[in-house]
Amino acid sequence: MNSEEGSSTSFASSVAIASGKGGVGKSTVAVNVATVLAKDGAAVGLLDADVYGPNCHIMLGVDKLPPPRGKTVIPAVAHGIKIVSMGLLVGAQQPLAWRGPMLHSAIRQFVQDVDWGDLDFLIVDLPPGTGDAQLSVAQTLSLTGGFIVTLPQAVSVADARRGLELFRQLQVPVLGVIENMSYLSMPDGSQVDVFGQGGGSRLAKDADVTFVGQIPLDPKVRVGGDTGEPIVVAHPESESAAALRQIAVTVCEKVVAQSREQQVDSIPIEVIE
Fold this sequence. Notes:
The protein is built from 9 helices and 10 strands. By secondary structure, the protein is of the alpha/beta class. The chain is 37% helix and 22% strand. Helix 3 runs parallel beside helix 4.
């Protein structure tokens, strides 16, 4: 990234976290995976590209950005993660009805005009669905790959399948499927399949991609998101935190392997005018 102050940015890997529909916990996965990677010593940035419903900053307990340096945006830092979100740039109740050029320009500026520094991982939290934002991110960043988050239920899987196919159309490597809210653990040790069973693994098998793992349904995940304390920090001993840590390990392994396959050590920003 070039600016008047001469700052620069490079990403060893840029990773999109996507979903076919809203409400499946995509942002929760992105925030917790980023937190685990940062806690393990990686330099991590989190770009909240969900411009219509930005909430990663809330999940990390951030309510404002540092003062800019000239025209350069300085990311906030929380739990060791550099974060930029539209939710930190507009009023909390201000709706955004952007499409096409306006949306593309905003996402491009999130990359071009932000002093990310040198990152090991840039995690990009995409909006749900298949639309302009996904196209803009793919056109703006040289994505190392993407992960699809889904519930086990058939309706969620059907939408996730569309998101997966969009990645492929955009020539973004699909690195895996993550199933959220897979089951609810009961006090007696039994499990209740609130949203069905096995949808994520079936999708991964059908698409011939890695099934990264399951995350159980846990009210503490919601509480952590509301209070700005990701569950991997607030309740590291919990079953959900353990699942998310293992998923973060797998994400890291898949991304590093894909980066090596692409034979790049550092992916500079590629901004398409």
